[in-house]
Amino acid sequence: MTPSFAERLTLSRAELDRDHLSRATPIDELLDAADARVVLLHDGHALVDGTRLVLLPTGAAAAVAARADGFALYLGRTLVDAPDAVLGAPVSALVITDEQAASAAVDAARASGHDLAWGDLRRLGADMTTRDAGIFTEALALANWHRSYGFAPASGRATEHGQAGWVRVDAETGKEFFPRTDAAIIVGVTDADDRLLLGSNALWPADRFSLLAGFVEPGESLEAAVVREVFEESGVRVADPRYLGSQPWPFPASLMLGFLARVADGAGVETRPDGEEILDLRWLTREELAAAVADGALRLPGRSSIARAIIEEWFGGDLGDDSW
Fold first, then answer.
1. What's the pLDDT tens digit per position in 268-310?
2. 281: exposed, middle or buried (Cβ count in 10 Å: 0-12, 13-18, 19+)
3. Rounded-to-integer distance, Cα 184 and Cα 168, Å
4. What is d(CA 118, CA 92) in angstroms, rounded to the nearest whole number?
5. Which of 43, 109, 152, 226 has minimal CB crowding within 10 Å?
6. Are the C-beta atoms of 73 and 95 separated by less than 8 Å?
7. Domains in the chain, please, with CATH?
8. Is the full-model pTM beyond 0.90?
9. Kind of enzyme, top EC level (predicted)?
């Protein structure tokens, strides 16, 4: 991974000690620490002040209200001293309900003296500090896992929180279930003329384009997944997948593994959208892509995504547009 590419992976940044040893501590003790801080999560969003993640003291009115009915997840300890959290402060996320969200935001705004809002990581992640981007990403990924694993897969029995939010437990058998992450590849495909292949997904507006991507199947290597997914979605055969880097994408629970691959020797460049997931495919030179973005004819992924990082790695610079 080149230094420039690593710097583009805005959700891979972290400045928090995940402090696995403290996960055995009851969550109430971690929340009750004098220097403890909490992040409020609601419906996949976090409470923010502009692009700054709001870290509330546990004694703040909003945090107390949220703690009464929501659930808490321990994230770790701060690695740097900051005005809103001292070095080594335990940081947790409080996942709150729809009913609590409005009052929690009002109470937090009153306590802080600022106008606060519920922020989207996809839109804000690239502009957040390293600490805040890492906390938000970790908190959202863990919260999304809890949302999906409320019941034991085999028995259907309800599971309970354990290890400060890092495990769910079948209360009857004691069987533990740990967080899962779905591996997905995403590929910048180039041809002999160094054009880049972009596709438009059926769920997007027609002018929105990104790279081809897909989940890794059971028993499949990452490289094999690259070759398979590109062919399934475009009809193009690729070779020599080259790994670039990875980034968590907690929407809801993916780890995106970035690659570059070239059209295989002897293979054609004629594209065949699958017609279900991918509706349109385009080969673009750097000049064509820059012109389409500048004219507003084509929208690219936002700067928080690894897709954008791979596109700009190929392009050789910042494309400027951030319309997602």
1. 999 999 899 999 999 999 999 999 999 999 999 999 999 999 9
2. buried
3. 24
4. 17
5. 43
6. yes
7. 3-148 (no CATH), 149-180 (no CATH), 182-315 (3.90.79.10)
8. yes
9. hydrolase
